[in-house]
Design goal:
This protein has one domain: Spore Coat Polysaccharide Biosynthesis Protein SpsA, Chain A, CATH 3.90.550. It is built from 6 helices and 9 strands; from the N terminus they run βαβαββαβαββααββ. The strands form 2 sheets. It has a 7-stranded mixed sheet, covered by helices on one side.
């Protein structure tokens, strides 16, 4: 199976980026140009083109054997949006599951099947919540999936953990947005 892996990054995160480059072969780096997370996400969607793609943020810690586990999960469900980071109670109580596309949240590490990156970029052009959520690119994905009445799959255990670090998008966010199922 052929897919791209793209990480979105910005200045002041070089150490996070080096960590990922050392562990993920052929990682494609998309650097923020104007301190705008949505623009960087749109750039990543454009670089993904129509290819299946794993989209990453730079402030993650990877599970051991990340690329193997990632590949196996994608190979199992290549035509479904896959979420590899979650913080929900159901992660422990239910485990891996499909959920309503409108509930999609968090873009730390997720997979888009063939054609989805371009379709989401096109959807952004008509997205009515741009002004309300200028950095809400996870909400963009959720609204896209909801508009198509699609579900997405939450993979448990999560393959990435959010680093305990200050958000550059919103410094008021908790530094402790952590997966309950991540295993290093």
């Amino acid at each position: 199976m052929d897919y791209k892996i793209i990480v979105r990054t910005c200045d002041d995160r070089e150490n996070f980026l080096c960590y990922l480059i050392e562990r993920i072969p052929n990682l494609i780096v998309v650097k923020d140009k104007d301190r705008n997370a949505m623009h960087t996400f749109l750039d990543a969607l454009e670089i993904a083109e129509d290819y299946p793609c794993v989209h990453l943020e730079d402030d993650i810690i990877l599970t051991c054997n990340f690329t193997t586990k990632l590949h196996n999960a994608i190979q199992d469900k290549p035509n479904v949006v896959l979420q590899f980071f979650s913080m929900r109670k159901d992660d422990i109580e239910i485990g891996s599951r499909f959920d309503s596309g409108g509930k999609f949240i968090s873009n730390l590490c997720f997979y888009l099947p063939y054609g989805y990156s371009c379709a989401i970029k096109d959807f952004y052009c008509t997205w009515t919540r741009k002004d309300e959520h200028p950095t809400g690119y996870d909400l963009l994905v959720a609204d896209f999936l909801k508009s198509r009445k699609e579900k997405y799959f939450i993979h448990i255990p999560n393959l990435v953990q959010h680093r305990i670090t200050r958000s550059l998008i919103n410094p008021k966010r908790s530094m402790f947005r952590l997966s309950k199922t991540f295993k290093e």
